[in-house]
Task: structure prediction
Amino acid sequence: MALRYFITGATGFVGSHLAEACVKRGDAVVALARTGSDTALLEKLGATIHRGDLTEADAVRKAVEGADVIVHCAAKVGDWGPVAEYRTVNVDGLRHLLEACRGKTLQRFVHLSSLGVYAARHHHGTDESEPLPANHMDGYTQSKVEAEQLALGYQRHFQVPVVVLRPGFIYGPRDRTVIPRLVETIRSGQFRWLGGGKKALNSIYVGNLVDAIFLAVEKPGAIGQVFNLTDGEFVSKRRFIESLVTGLDLPTPKPVGLPLWLARIVAWGMERKARRKGAAKAPRLTQARLKFLGLNLDFSIEKAKRELGYQPRVNFDKGMQETIAYYKSVSV
Result:
């Protein structure tokens, strides 16, 4: 039976892929889009578009009317800026959405979180039983922890059928944030290896994430649960970066990089100096970028395999081929 999906962040990276997949399955798509955002793809898909913002409670209430499934993809992302700015979108905006769902008959409310909610340390097969830190290193990760707690609280207290998914680093066509920034850093000769690039990257192809979202909607036992998600294969930082370098004909990064201990000191110093100056943009090296490029980020997806039936359909090589083909087509 066809379902009516309300997707937040539908004009963005993950949300747009999910909207496409919904339409292919014969499901209806409803989206909330900010004024001025590019809705051309959604219009082409025949989606119903409501203009507004997650911070506008009235707009959210109107948009969710008649929805069978809510998938919350929207978030303020980044590694710089006041925590309060991240909370406004990632926590307060989520609260508006959850309030709008109270008392409604929903099949599922899928909340997209992040593996970034775990402590910023080396991980080797970390699973969902790992406690989350109360205080995080930046506004994004702090607000994502708080958002998870809020969503699961609404499931426990108000029976909103919440499932929390924690994807790792999402790659694929239409990423407008991480890969374009990495490409520019490599192209400009500013890229530096941290710790040699041998550590694991917690990557997940966007198509695999979309598959997991549908499984979270369909499995009755998923309600109230949290699931880690990656591609399920070891991909080193070096393998990922070298795939971009080869595929997009970028200059080879210099072989000498910073050891991890020194990178921590440099990042701390750069962040301190930037905050003292009230810098609007992040410095070249932050604790978040150090985590992405230097820490071992290996997380278990056994729970998702066991309870959702999740089996990554697209392997890393295929996913990167599609990603690189897209960026070549848009001349990143």
